[in-house]
Amino acid sequence: MTDTIVVVIGAGVSGLTSALLLSKRKGYKITVVAKHMPGDYHGEYASPFAGANIVPLANDAGKRWESETWHELKRLAEDVPEAGIHFQSFPVHAFSNIPWYRDLFKDYRDLPQSEVLDGYDSASEYTGVCINTAVYLPWLVGQLLKNGVVIKRSIIKDIKEARALSHTGQPASVIVNATGLGSLKLGGVRDSALYPIRGQTALVRNESTPMVLCSGSTDGPGEELYIMQRAGGGGTVLGGTYDVGNWDTEADPNVASRIMSRVVKVRPEIASGNGIAGLSVIRHAVGLRPARKGGVRLEKETLDGSTTIVHNYGHGGYGFQSSYGYAAGVVELVSEVRKQQKGAVPKL
């Protein structure tokens, strides 16, 4: 069987992870094409701004994606320190009952009411991971380069253009669409089910463990409380907001003040008891989570007689923690396409 020519559009965590798992299989020539790359900071490129951690959000029917991802991230934290992932104890405070993932973590425990923060119904604790995205995303790129994947920048207005962007000079027989919110306006896709969830955070030099995540806050709808210390000197992410439908990528100083106030209230030691003034801010940032009505789109679509699109987008705020699961799903779909196209030679 001849090599299958694959073009992956998008270099966020979903695109890079999909390309990585494909690159570990024989018989593929892979090119990653994207407007934004690791090292870039732009609100529409959400991956660099993520916490990023493991707090399973899927329902029981969709737990495969996060379960598979947890096991791989756990392996990386144990065996591949250069990936920028470390273990962190993680209390989670919620307004609802504890979900299915109590069986995913060996040290999972429900916290007694005396340890639950005021205003929340319940809390649990387990050892998860936190990812330094400034290290991890470039690490993914390095793994791709080692595996022979070619990466290049381009702005694509219509998905059909990707067919001619393989580094091999041959037309792609598979296009993996991992453009996130870009699929809202991408010609040939224009998925109106996509919408942004604005997330504002502060990145500080102060260290603080264990991590904390609270589902919402008493400051009102769309405002949250979380503290996530990144691996490898990556600072601590303070959050945050969950502002559905908001496209504004500029940090709001009033929101920033409320975020930091919430953090120093529940954990004054992070600022040595000096309140907001004790926080050493690296930057305030805004990222747009790529959410989708109806959930993630993971499916095949025929572009023409010789090219198939495999979509993988719409992960909202759980792109990192479901990245390997959905990427495995991409590999399965691409493998099906490869079998169907066996012996076929695409023509421009």
TrEMBL record:
- The regions listed as transmembrane in this protein's record are 6-23
Name by which UniProt lists this protein: FAD dependent oxidoreductase domain-containing protein
Pfam families linked? DAO
The scientific name of the source species is Purpureocillium lilacinum (Paecilomyces lilacinus)
Q: Which cofactor does it need?
A: FAD
All residue ranges annotated as the FAD dependent oxidoreductase domain in the record = 6-332
Domain of life, per UniProt, equals Eukaryota
**Can you tell me which family this protein belongs to?**
Belongs to the DAMOX/DASOX family.
This protein's UniProt keywords: FAD, Flavoprotein, Membrane, Oxidoreductase, Transmembrane, Transmembrane helix
Instruction: Spell out the InterPro entries in the cross-references.
Output: D-amino_acid_oxidase_CS (IPR006181), DAO (IPR023209), FAD-dep_OxRdtase (IPR006076)
